[in-house]
Amino acid sequence: MKILLTNDDSLDSPLFWFAGDYFQAMGQVTAVVPAAEQSWKGKAMTRLGALHLEPLDGFACATYALSGTPADCANFGIYHLFDSKPDLVISGINMGSNAGLGFALSSGTIGAALEANIAGVPAVALSQVLPGPVFRHWIEHRALQPDVQDRLLKNCRAMLHRVFAFLNARADFLSDPITWNVNLPCELAADWQVVPTALGHTFYTSCFKPSENGYCHNIDQPEVEERKGTDGTALREGHVSVTRLDIRTLG
Questions:
Q1: I need a surface site. Which of 90, 123, 131, 236 has the fewest CB within 10 A?
Q2: How many other C-beta atoms lie within 10 A of the C-beta of residue 40?
Q3: Mean pLDDT in each 10-residue stretch from start to end of the chain (251 residues)?
Q4: Given 3.40.1180.10, 3.30.300.30, 3.40.1210.10, 3.40.50.2300, which CATH number is that of 2-250?
């Protein structure tokens, strides 16, 4: 199986390094990621100016940096890095949650997966929920503390084993151009499961706060949705959420 791997956090994410190694067992992996972080870009694509591709050494798979958005990376990778289209696009593993409608529409991780669907390729968008202090440390230092990272990767490996067992059991996993939006909780329940969920109605308010340099991205705490069966509820209960996103139902 030919797999295209991308993300929106760029090259220095420890979860990108982990994904590049982990998915080797599933097939032939080629990775193309934004040269700089491109979070919250949704499915935006570069219209003006030229993109630049740089091959990189030192990764577990063939890896490239592209001076564009996550959706740029998906489109470029599908049509320019393979002799024929890949069988699967994996986007992530994102540093932080992508649960709820407001965040799904803003996510560069999901944007890359939807771009794959437009090309007729199935995709999995993977996001790892992080505790608040861990996420803030990542944003400020672009690194995780070693003990936190070791525990995170151990749990992530266990969750991915079950996620792909769940997906591979479905007849439509590799046949239909669907995005499977997978969110991995930061704290697992003792009886944790992979749970099929609906996309929750979680919305944000203001995204910007005054700063010394103008107005910077800073989201107000969104209202928590309590409906059972949604991705956010499953995550809060310590389960892995898997949400089926099919853009063809919109037409």
A1: 131
A2: 16
A3: 98 96 97 97 97 96 98 98 97 97 96 98 98 93 95 97 98 96 97 97 92 89 85 97 95 73
A4: 3.40.1210.10
**How many residues in total does the chain contain?**
251
Count how many Cα atoms sit within 13 Å of the Cα of residue 48 in the half-sphere of its side chain: 0
Q: Which two tokens stand for residue 125?
A: 């968008």
Q: How far apart are CA 237 and CA 244, in angstroms?
A: 20
**Which residues have CB under 8 Å from 247's CB, separation 6+?**
114, 117, 118, 179
Angle at CA 35, nearest 5°, toward 82 and 78?
20
Q: Alpha-carbon distance 201 to 165, whole Å?
A: 28
Q: Is 51 exposed, middle or buried (0-12, 13-18, 19+ CB in 10 A)?
A: middle
Domain boundaries, the chain: 2-250
Give the residue carrying structure tokens 């499953």. 234
